[in-house]
Amino acid sequence: MLVVGPIGFTAPWLLWGLLVLPVLWLLLRAVPPAPVRRRFPGVALLLGLTDEENQADRTPWWLLMIRMVAVALVILGFAGPLLHPEKKAEGAGPLLILTDGGWADARDWPQRQARIAAELAEAGRSGRPAALLSLSDLPPGAVAFAAADVVAAGLPALAPKAWEPDQAGLEGLASHLPEGRFETLWLSDGLARAGRDVLAGALAKRGVVTVIESARNVLGLGAVGSEAGKVSVTVLRARTPAAASVEVSARGFDPAGIERELARASVNFAAGEAQAPALFDLPPELRNRVTRFEIAGETTAGAVALTDDALKRRKVALVAGGNAREGLELLSPDHFLRRALEPSADLIDGTIGDVLLAAPDVIILADVARVAETDALLDWIDAGGLLIRFAGPQLAASDAGRDTLDPLLPVKLRAGGRAVGGTMSWGEPKTLAPFPEGSPFHGLAVPQDVSISAQILAQPGPDLSKNTIATLADGTPLVTRRQIGDGQVVLFHVSANAEWSSLPLSGLFVQMLERLAVSSGSVRPAAEELAGTVWVADRVLDGFGALDDAGAMPGVPGERLSEAVTGAELPPGLYTSQDRQLAVNAIAPGRTLAAAEWPANVVVQGQGVMRETPLKGWFLAGALVLLMADILAALVVAGRLAGPRAGMALVLMALATAGLPHDVRAQAPDDARLLQAAENVVLAHVITGDRAVDRMADDGLRGLSNVLRARTSVEPGAPMAVDLETDELSVFTFLYWPVTARQPQPSPESYAKLNRYLRTGGMILFDTRDADVAGFGAASPEGRRLQELTAPLDIPPLEPIPKDHVLTRSFYLLQVFPGRFAARNVWVEAAPPGAELAEGMPFRNLNDGVTPVVIGGNDWASAWAIDGNGRPRVPVGRGVTGERQREVAFRFGVNLIMYVLTGNYKSDQVHVPALLERLGQ
Amino acid sequence: MTLAPPTSARPAGLRREAEALASVLPALLAEARHLAATVQMGDHGRRRSGMGDEFWQYRAADATDEARAIDWRRSGRADQQFVREKEWQAAQSVHLWVDDARSMEFSGDKGRQAKADRARLLALALAVLLIRGGERVGLADGLAPPRAGEVQLIRLAQQFTAPAGQADFGAPVVETVLPGSRAVFISDFLGAPEAVEKALIHAADRGVTGVLLQVLDPVEEAFPFDGRTIFESMTGAVRHETRKAGNLRDRYRARLAERKARLSDLAAKAAWLFHTHHTDRPAQGALLWMYHALGRGR
């Protein structure tokens, strides 16, 4: 193969043909254009007239040029030009395929898998043994080569992990490489990390190392923090070639419990900048709802930042007993609490009755003896509230919890209290004992200068030690706790001000409150704070950034958690310990992303950019176009192209050249179209950009329209294609939205339009066309795309169509809803939980409301589609059964349109007896 | 009447030709009548008293009038005698010559009539008008001597639909033209001008006056050609090759103008009238012109 610049030739000897060109030049020049013969009676007048010049004798140079270039293109075309020809060095020996397999690979995982599969197939053809390793998930033991097809069988099970390869693993692999020489193909995620160079060096000693890197930039989300009252999320990128803009969205549950996007911020990277903060200005109500931040459009674990208690500002209600003595702030019962909580929590003041309405997370009663709203408060605790009480003169003086256990106190109290180390008492002020294991305070360092001089005492009892979570050095309970339902009540046996102890003055006080999840520090707990705790994974991220249940995973010690470097034993996710929750993200705080730099002896290839492109077709097409132009030019020169024929020829040529790649998308929303849509019921489908799918949708809706016209009183007009960006949606009643994996995300304005459409009674039928193999999840590309597309929509909770849904009887009686596929589950808005079986009816008494969306994957359009002659376009199933399935698909369509148009009319039948009864009177 | 030499001796061939002939004939005649109808504006008649059937005027009788000339019905209503005079309707012979050479078959555009078709149409329409006006119309080449009456129209039409001649360019024949009569020559006059000159001089010698109507296709006027071209006459006998036809345009048009001027000059000298008609123009204009031109000298 001859390679000239980026172009190679498969048959270079044909290029000798270019030598013919000069000869051709001479020949063509010598032969003038052929004359036209014309009958013309006026010839008698022409006799004797001679030509003034002899120029057209020779072919004009530009015509020659066109012909020469055309011939040159033909010669070049047949010489087999290739753009970016692959240098196929036929490898020998075993092939080791490495993939980083971390979250950074998740974005283009299918391409990577395809590439690996291709390489394995190639190795299989040439009989080379191969091995496949994911560096994030290294198997124990040595690397063993096996037959390539055996290795390829395990490829589909390979999934990207949510963490990155770790240094120890890489270096371990470097020292345990198999014996002998072998070739290495390393599908890298393009990120620099420790240990990589070691492994690359070791591999290079064994044979050729080829690295394949994606050209795509790797984006990630770093630490979540707050900055001047705003939430800031650090956005990282690996390569910093130019300025770029990245959208970050904050997601969380709305009041209805549905996860949706709560806010969106855009980050602008300057050129050369590797990280930039995304700032969210959120009201506390919204901020507490945020569960995760993610980079829009990136489906990797690294582009997700989970939030934990650190982000939440808890609502703490402070109720202080007694009259605050005016002017003596330092002596007021709640002064220190206020100062301790203000930076990290939202404080609520008022009476207990008032603050309960604000649904606080924590209520602190500082020296309150009796509570009037005991029952309401108990209900609140029962539902998960945390009541913290501090002792004080009033509590000590009252008889609360003396004889019987006060429901709002953890233990029975002894009358009075004790004072130690005072001027009138014996003994020294008491210090704190180290916190016992099992106490929420376990692991906190006890400062020696904290002393307790007065406290109230708990009555000894069998439960006392179980309820005690902090004691004094002499064993007297200092903090006691009791579970009530889902909540708990905690009693500090000292006052919240500095009168009885120096505890409120110490840093330990704040730490203890934090451990009780009263306040949450806006910074991550330090290593020493985590020391001694055990955390259990609650939910973990997969490589694509989706949260899954953790299942049974061993607990993680706090020390390991504090490193926050994720790995197989610490996958990113949400970890809980007692009442606290901690998020571990794929990108550890402080980690920056950088592009990998490879040693010189490593061959680096792009993943898809340098694909070999045969240019033969283009060359020959170019030659053909030139020859066409030559025809026209020759006609012009010969004078045969004149008058209207010339104009027509030009128009034809313009159409032929410019008309081919025609964009049919842009259609201005003209009034005629709107009128047509508004005059009639018009079924519409969303333009996906995939022509085949769009055509199928159009044909499908046409088929359904025909059936509707034939069987029902609905007479729809011709179906329309709807461009979400430009078209007015309010004139449509029904939108069919086939979901393709490559569909572009509509703009925010379009989403606003769609939400308005859904709210005002429109319906969208989403069709993933994948036979529902995704099961409404992310297993198929369409399913994933569906989730992304519908995320910004106001979609209520969904359920599979229940047996008594109106859709099952709005025209035909149906229980299955097949299209070209017959998967079971089609999802609609969930019925309200309180629906009861109507009396004497086989269905529940459901009130009004048409589901705004119907979601499924049965590829209905294909089942409905008819061609121009009214025959079905796509076969469904086989034989009579298949035709039956098509018929049922049509019936489902009819039911659906009937349901859209008549709402729950059929459901109203339950009222018929009542209506008849009323009429009778 | 002579038919064209039969191309086939078989009856079928004869019949086919006859049918083709018959199918053209009524159409041509009908078209000519139709065209002539547009000129029926009462412009016929001699506007003077003389021999004829139509009433012209009553005039007071004088001494020279015979008694039988007096119109008694009119005279009975007055005190003096009146003579009834009729309009003069002396018939005149008009000879038509329509060029049937091959050059007349040319048409510059598929949608346009050939020059020959237009020429025949004009000639026949003129004949319709003249015969309706009582004139005698015949052909200049003696194939149909001038006669009056509707039957003559049929005869003329048959002559006009006879197959064309074989020559490239035609020349008028004046040998059989009656002295003192009128003649109408319709041709493109693109052949040698000397033949026309000779015919005109001959006609002028015999006291024949008339009109020359040159029928041209607009293409012949505009010469819209370009590039390397071989021009051929309709039979292919005459040809001219050029490298760049566009360069010849101005010179060709100059020659055409010269030809027209020469014919016009010639006509003026022989007391004839010359006019150029283009086939893309309506035929009425040329017909009107010819009709008035013929009525001029009377």
List the helices and strands and how they pair.
The complex is a heterodimer of chains A (921) and B (298).
Chain A: E1 2-4, E2 7-9, H1 20-30, E3 36-39, H2 43-46, H3 61-78, E4 81-83, E5 95-99, H4 109-125, E6 129-134, E7 146-147, H5 148-153, H6 167-175, E8 183-188, H7 196-206, E9 209-213, E10 219-227, E11 230-237, E12 244-253, E13 259-269, E14 275-280, H8 284-287, E15 290-295, E16 304-306, E17 314-320, H9 335-341, E18 345-349, H10 352-357, E19 362-366, H11 374-382, E20 386-391, H12 393-397, E21 418-419, E22 454-455, H13 464-467, E23 468-471, E24 477-484, E25 487-495, H14 507-515, H15 527-530, E26 534-541, E27 547-549, E28 556-557, H16 558-563, E29 573-577, E30 580-584, E31 602-606, E32 613-614, H17 616-638, H18 644-658, H19 671-679, E33 683-686, H20 691-711, E34 720-722, E35 734-738, H21 748-759, E36 763-767, H22 781-790, E37 798-800, E38 827-829, E39 853-856, H23 860-864, H24 879-902, H25 912-920
Parallel strand pairs in A: 5-6, 5-8, 8-9, 9-31, 17-18, 17-19, 19-20, 20-25, 33-34, 33-35, 35-36, 36-39
Antiparallel strand pairs in A: 1-2, 2-4, 4-32, 6-7, 10-11, 11-14, 12-13, 12-15, 15-16, 21-22, 23-24, 24-25, 26-27, 26-28, 26-29, 29-30, 37-38
Chain B: H1 11-37, E1 55-60, H2 72-75, E2 82-86, E3 93-98, H3 115-132, E4 136-139, H4 150-160, E5 182-187, H5 193-205, E6 209-216, H6 218-222, E7 229-232, E8 239-242, H7 245-269, E9 273-278, H8 283-296
Parallel strand pairs in B: 3-4, 3-5, 5-6, 6-9
Antiparallel strand pairs in B: 1-2, 7-8
Helix pairs in contact in B: 1-3, 1-4, 3-4, 3-8, 5-7
